[in-house]
Structure formats: structure tokens, C-alpha cells
Specification:
This protein has 89 residues and is of the alpha+beta class. Helices cover 29% and strands 35% of the residues. The strands form three sheets. A two-stranded parallel ribbon has the order 1-2. The chain has a two-stranded antiparallel ribbon with strand order 3-4. It starts with a strand and ends with a helix.
């Protein structure tokens, strides 16, 4: 099962899913509680400005609910193939 989660609103998720024809469920973590629990709600810096946001990360959760693998600093361009390869092993 594939789930996507971010602090975006449900409406933004619907639009994103439709635009990219995504076949999986997107979950809204508007208050970033899940992001905080997984340690991916972090302070970021861009052009000297500091702000809080999500460190783009993928977690593979095993059948027992444990993190089997974590991919940090994800590049969306080739990440799907990278995850698919990890799931084959």
C-alpha cells in the first residue's frame, strides 16, 4: 500500500492527485503531527530566510509496523524506481 502525506490541505491534495493522475491515497497532515512524530518537521533555510517545513522523506513500513527503510533527501524525478527496487529485496 502506498500513502502520501504532507501538511497540505485536502483540497490541495485532491488537485495534486488529479493533475498527476496518482493512483494512491494522499493524507493531509495540516497540523504536521505525523511529520513531527517521524522527525521530518524541520527548520529549513532558503535565501537566508528560516522557516519550518517537511524534509522530503519516504518510509517503507514493514508488516509489523516498523520502519524497514528510510529514504532521506528524496528527489521526486527518479524516486519511484528507487523505492520499487528496494521493495523487491
Amino acid at each position: 500500500m502506498v500513502l502520501g502525506i504532507s501538511p497540505d490541505t485536502p483540497r490541495k491534495h485532491q488537485n495534486f492527485k488529479k493533475k498527476y493522475k496518482l493512483p494512491y491515497t494522499l493524507l493531509a497532515d495540516v497540523e504536521h503531527k505525523v511529520a513531527e512524530a517521524y522527525g521530518v518537521w524541520v527548520e529549513k533555510k532558503f535565501m537566508g530566510r528560516k522557516y519550518w517545513g517537511v524534509a522530503r522523506t519516504t518510509f517503507v513500513i514493514d508488516a509489523n509496523g516498523r520502519i524497514a527503510k528510510a529514504f532521506e533527501h528524496v528527489n521526486p524525478e527518479n524516486h519511484g524506481a528507487e523505492v520499487a527496487e528496494a521493495l523487491r529485496h
